[in-house]
Predict the structure.
Amino acid sequence: MPPAKKRPRTYDPAKTRTAVLAQFGNVRAAVRTLTPDQLAAPAGLGDWTVRELAAHLTMALEAVSRGLDGDEPAGPPLALLDWPSSTAPRAAEVDDDVRTLAAAEPDLDALYERAEARFTERLPQATDARLLATRVGPMTLADHLVTRTVELVVHTDDLNAAVPGLDVPYDRQALATCTRLLADALAAKAPGASTEVRVPPYAVVQCVEGPRHTRGTPPNVVETDPLTWIRLATGRTRWQAALDAAKVSASGERADLGGLLPLMG
């Protein structure tokens, strides 16, 4: 008998909404402190500057506001676990929009204030099941907000890497949601139960075809911390580099995830 199909993870919409705003607030407070020289420095993402990265972070909220302003699209909605793999084809479009936005908005704090105000004004009246038009297709508001935690956490990490000492904090709920979505996306990409991937304290998933583990210590185990996992899943860190730096422990013949990563290009 085949194993029962796993139910998709559910997220508390109220907690997700709070987490998105909390992480956006953390970023906004940090961006206020950046000097002109820091803003002009390379962001480590292609040829973006830190200013362009900072402008891009406002788009995480603005995508929701714009979706709520528009007409509700026809379904069916994109499944949440299909979102990570759907983003790479839109990279050039995002790049153009970021450059245009950064050039048009010299006052970043005003841009952040406007993005937050639009978001907080529109969100309370919207239902979680409301469909939004997004770059990758229709998504429910609840699912789209989960993806906003990924956008905010991933690019907060980019900002911290680009500006040494900035140390923008991570909202715990936003970090947990981002970690879980990317872990579940791995399990969806490589279904199975022979390998256990642990990202304490937020996620444990089983994946990869092979002998099914039922009790005791699994024969194939991968373990890492949330930020290292997020960097692996998004291509910021390569599998072998993380192993060499002892950022990941991997035991068992099916514990090599190098061929499955990154999940987002």
About this structure: The longest helix spans residues 141-162.
